Amino acid sequence: MDNKIKISVRSLVEYVYKSGSIETGFRSAVPLSEGTRIHQRIQKQYGEEDQKEVYLQAGLTFNHLDFQLDGRCDGLIIKNGERIIDEIKSVSLPLSEIDKFAYPVHWAQAKCYAFMYAKDNNISNMTVQLTYVHAKTNEVKRFLQSYSFCELEEFIVHLLESYSPYAELRVRHQKDLIKSLQELTFPFPAYRNGQRKLAGAVYKTIAEGKNLFANAPTGIGKTISTLFPALKAIGEGHIQRIIYATAKTITRQAAEGAISLMRDNGLNIKSVTITAKDKICFKEETNCQKDSCEFANGYYDRINQAVLDLLKNENMISRTTIEQYAKKHKVCPFEFSLDAAYAADAIIGDYNYIFDPRVSLKRLLEEEKKKTALLIDEAHNLVDRGREMYSSSLEKSAFLQLSRSFKGKDEGIQKSVKQVNGIFIALKKKCGENQEIAEKDPPEELFEILEEFVQYAENYLRQNRNNTEEELLEVYFAAQNFIRIGKLYDERFVTYIQKQRNDLIIKLFCLDPSNLLHKARKGYKSAIFFSATLMPLNYYLDMLGFQEEDFIVSVPSPFSKEQAKVYIQPLSTRYRDREESIEPIVRTIKSMLKGQRGNYLIFFPSYQYMENVYGRFLDEEMPVHAIIQKTGMDEREREEFLDAFQPNASGTLLGFAVMGGIFSEGIDLQGDRLNGVFVVGVGLPQIGFERDIMKAYFQQQGKNGYDYAYTYPGMNKVLQAGGRLIRSENDTGMIVLMDDRYVQAKYQALLPEEWKDFIVIRN
Predict the structure, then answer these.
(1) Do 111 and 232 belong to one domain?
(2) pLDDT at 32
(3) Distance (Å, whole) CA 614 – CA 625
(4) Is 229 helix (H, G, I), strand (E, B) or coil?
């Protein structure tokens, strides 16, 4: 058994010394770039003999485990022959609140560096200095402490003693994992057509540390075709971890199912599924303050034991498992899932844990990222999700209300909020008669005032920790996010101001997320973007941040075109013609389903259109049972909708649903559970201000602005909806495309090859 454990000083001391409760987050961490700048400013004050960013390492044996400890100390100061380790910490809270031993974890980090330096240089005494710098005022506060080498050595032994139960567990598991991976075989009797090609491309990409964009058709088995080779890459030592990222619960469940299938074949892996905070929170209202939540109070005092218990006894760590152990150990289930994820071989979760600057897996160190592969499922969804993650807005009404609430309560908050409100008033005047205006430049003056507001809000929240100030917290977080997105602002952004009834909204809108998506995945060893509908490929390569050195693979459909009969009904479903289209749509459904048994889905571009056709359809006396998607369906209602699609139906079922919604992607109604799909319209997003700004932007970039803003995103929804039908070699049925644009060459070019042999329905 390989007993070597490479661990950074920071990871070790945080594991042992992090204590206390989860805070709401108002003690904002100083941004990395700002922290670096502060460190450099302090280091410039060093003397000629002093050193900065000193790399240190030490090999230590404890309990039959060989620890390789390493890290970089901020500074080594030589003063009158004395060696001083300097650890610099940039903070946002007032320095008056920091006393000598306020943060044991900071002393622990510096003492580790002192031990390693003393051991290397045979020094009997070392001095440790903590230098705290306030991020805004540049005020400095220093603390010094001297230690003998024996004291430092004892301290290191104590650290390793505390860490070793977890380390032993990881070492034992690693041995079992690698053995099981080397013996693992593909969990089906044979590969489907195209599966081997995709799996081979994924393995090669990871082994070479590249990135892959894969267009692989619906029904090929993309989940297993990406997970299996990625896991084999762990077995061969190319990577140590996989993050499987997706946009929907249903596709996360597919990844869990694939891992479960391989576990049945002998795979010994620890996988953790991360569920969104608001979904998994045990409290009625999510308020991460120790006084409001017993699961947040003292969280860090209990978390190590909770993680150890979980990892000792569980492998497939789903939402249910997390909830069970979180209750047992009285820890926040969301934070617990993140802490467990850092110890997992496979992490399953939403895109935002990789790409969103607010919630990414921040504790994943650069060194660990280099040993991690990303599997990005349904990657076509990442374009609009990326835009969403890298955009931010503020509402005038929120600041106006806060101004009223804090009158006479806090002078600083009241003053800064009034200034923000003043900027909103000036922007409203700027709009004049227009409902909205767009500008290329960011609102620099607003950023400055928001920075002030954030400082005042932090001070107030810290001093009034026992009072829940929901209203202030909400605006505080919105302001923080606005500032954060402002730091990403470049020529791919636009600022727009929009009047909405009595309110005014200012938005930093990311027109093109490709650059930021590329940056977010840059530190990882490999990223695999895959979808059944990366079409047209050039559009998605452009929008997802494709680089020249990246790989591309396009897998043809494994199914024959004979499996699906495709019909086109050329009628106008444009907004102005929708009322007139209802009758012909109902007539076609009636004609196509006459005498047919089985289950069918009909997809619409909007809820209103769907409800209008549904209402008219119910007027027909037909032996067809109709069900309809409602807005905001919970998981139970979704399951009930899908459970209605049973095989070997004695009658006819027609499900009314919305394109781009929960039933048009990721659902798998195999065999006789689905016999046909109707698609009404070409899925174009509603014409509006944002889409028109995008259109103009891409047109200026020399691209077809209308296609980038409307056509391609719309047709993607069509392909996803139609793709629900043929999921396996045995599936058959019909696809009916209802719109006159489908007979145009431009739209036909965007259809899959197997849909192009169609029959035109003439009324």
Answers:
(1) no
(2) 65
(3) 11
(4) helix
363 and 216, same structural domain? yes
CA distances, 309 to each of 269, 336, 340 (Å): 16, 12, 11
| Tokens (6 digits) for 457 | 């809000």
- Give the CA count within 13 Å in the CB-facing half-sphere of 59: 4
The segments of the chain whose pLDDT lies below 70 read: 1-2, 24-33, 360, 465-468, 763
Q: % helix / strand / coil in the chain, to the nearest 5?
A: 45, 20, 35
Q: Is there a contact between 626 and 618 (Cβ–Cβ < 8 Å)?
A: yes
What contacts 368, CB < 8 A, 6 or more positions away?
Answer: 240, 241
Full residue range of the structural domain in which residue 432 is found: 391-510
Alpha-carbon span 624 to 598, nearest angstrom: 10
What is the Cα–Cα distance from 337 to 347, expressed in whole angstroms?
10
DSSP calls for 683-713: -PPPP-HHHHHHHHHHHHTTS-HHIIIIIHH
- 666 φ, ψ to 5°? 80, -15
Could you tell me if 573 and 661 lie in one domain?
A: yes
pTM, two decimals, is: 0.92
Tokens found for residue 468: 């829940």
Tell me the pLDDT tens digit for each residue of 490-507: 999 999 999 988 899 999
Residues ≥6 apart with Cβ < 8 Å to 561: 753, 754, 755, 757
Give phi and psi for 274, each to the nearest 5: -95, 125
- Tokens read off for 57: 């390492």
pLDDT at 2: 66
